[in-house]
């Protein structure tokens, strides 16, 4: 949710630090780097073909985002996700995103709704193609368009602090039924906005988080049944 969701006139190439940050974050979110993986500067730098400095900077940022734990002995590991942590994260994200959504709805224009429709279509198309990274980014942008419409940049800053961790949880826990929960929720929310029913749209958007929390609570972190 770092951008407004609309196309840019042009895109500057990322700095080396930003490129490394995006790559490592993507590997964590998608599970390429599983929870508990130890990250060593030199090894990551060699694998990505960069110097150690941007790797250290990227790891420091990811630690601030909660994706990497730094132990007292400076060992860096991909953060473990417990059920308690997962549910707390969903609760925090729900409060922030739903507040921003409610505040932004009165300011939505036809252009906003058009961009939300585009993001929703990208979300669905990428899910069908199996591109989870692109799908989660499009899904995040769907909400960001509304949150930015609130004009509250401070809120957006706080949303950005937890969004990568939330996307990691979603990507790691989601089966077809979970994705459908978000697809149908977004679709019905947008239809209510297009029908001029903003209060109902906010309520439907809030329900997505309620339903998602309930599903995560029942499907994650349970040990296998012993025979």
Automatic annotation (TrEMBL):
InterPro entries: GntR_C, TF_FadR/GntR_C, Tscrpt_reg_HTH_GntR, WH-like_DNA-bd_sf, WH_DNA-bd_sf. SMART domains: FCD, HTH_GNTR. Gene3D superfamilies: GntR ligand-binding domain-like, Winged helix-like DNA-binding domain superfamily/Winged helix DNA-binding domain. PANTHER family: TRANSCRIPTIONAL REGULATOR, GNTR FAMILY (PTHR43537), UXU OPERON TRANSCRIPTIONAL REGULATOR (PTHR43537:SF5). Keywords: DNA-binding, Transcription, Transcription regulation. This is GntR family transcriptional regulator. Residues 14-81 form the HTH gntR-type domain. It comes from Blastococcus deserti.
């Amino acid at each position: 949710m770092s951008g407004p969701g609309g196309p840019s006139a042009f895109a500057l190439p990322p700095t080396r630090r930003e490129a490394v940050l995006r790559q490592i974050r993507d590997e964590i979110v998608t599970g390429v780097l599983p929870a508990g993986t130890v990250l060593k500067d030199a090894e990551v730098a060699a694998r990505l073909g960069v110097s150690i400095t941007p790797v250290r900077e990227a790891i420091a940022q990811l630690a601030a985002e909660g994706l990497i734990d730094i132990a007292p002995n400076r060992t860096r590991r991909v953060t473990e996700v417990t059920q308690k942590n997962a549910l707390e994260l969903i609760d925090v994200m729900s409060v922030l995103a739903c507040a921003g959504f409610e505040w932004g709805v009165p300011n939505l224009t036809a252009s906003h709704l058009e961009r939300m429709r585009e993001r929703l279509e990208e979300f669905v198309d990428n899910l069908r193609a199996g591109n989870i990274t692109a799908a989660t980014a499009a899904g995040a942008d769907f909400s960001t368009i509304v949150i930015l419409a609130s004009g509250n940049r401070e809120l957006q800053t706080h949303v950005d602090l937890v969004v990568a961790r939330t996307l990691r949880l979603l990507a790691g826990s989601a089966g077809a039924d979970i994705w459908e929960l978000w697809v149908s929720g977004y679709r019905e929310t947008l239809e209510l906005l297009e029908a001029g029913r903003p209060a109902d749209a906010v309520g439907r958007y809030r329900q997505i988080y309620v339903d998602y929390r309930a599903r995560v609570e029942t499907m994650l972190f349970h040990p296998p049944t012993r025979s």
